[in-house]
Design goal:
The protein has about 180 residues and is mainly beta. The protein has a domain at about 80-185. It has strands at about 1-10, 10-25, 30-40, 45, 50-55, 65-70, 80-90, 95-105, 115-120, 125-135, 145-155, 160-170, 175-185. About 0% of the residues are buried.
Length: about 180
């Protein structure tokens, strides 16, 4: 469950949404998952920044000739998402493994997309990742494409430290880079 609050100065919208999902492991090393995300109520922007001062139509000179009104804004749906995914773990050697995954995403706001990727792990410490996302209908105008990354996991007396780097190609912004640090106790 999540409470959504979007604010811009004195205007905002609120909503409540739920995410549901299930994951099942079968046939030894094959996982199957289904998720529904952002299932919730419609949202609508309100606030004092939307208020306008205007002349009241047909006002007499002795009455107040102006008034403040707030327009009724259009409600909008949350971007509900249905995801179906498969993944499989392959043991390459004693210290190396390869995880392959595929995801189909149906979105009520954007067009459907398919993502594929892999994670090569060495000694459960070094991760090398790659993936590709593509649109199912309009392949000529994809916003995303290739994703690459690497991670390092280090254990210091029961404390697990992960450092990750990821690059994602973006058509509009010439790609973005993310660096992450996670400490687990």
């Amino acid at each position: 469950m999540k409470y959504i609050n979007v604010r811009m100065m004195a205007t905002g919208a609120n909503g409540l949404a739920f995410d549901f999902g299930v994951q099942n492991k079968f046939l030894g090393n094959l996982w199957f998952g289904v998720a529904l995300k952002n299932i919730g109520n419609d949202m609508r922007y309100t606030g004092t920044d939307l208020q306008q001062k205007t002349q009241v139509p047909n006002a007499t000179p002795t009455s107040y000739g102006s008034g403040i009104y707030e327009p009724v804004t259009e409600s909008f749906e949350l971007p509900s998402i249905f995801e179906l995914n498969f993944s499989s773990l392959f043991k390459i050697s004693q210290d190396n493994s390869l995880m392959l995954a595929a995801l189909y995403r149906n979105n009520n706001v954007l067009e459907d997309d398919v993502c594929v990727g892999g994670d090569l792990t060495d000694i459960k410490m070094i991760h090398i990742r790659g993936g590709y996302a593509y649109l199912t209908q309009n392949q000529s105008a994809p916003e995303f494409g290739l994703c690459l990354g690497a991670g390092l996991e280090y254990i210091i007396s029961k404390i697990i430290v992960n450092v990750d780097y990821a690059y994602r190609s973006l058509k509009s912004f010439k790609g973005n880079q993310v660096v992450g640090l996670r400490v687990s106790f």
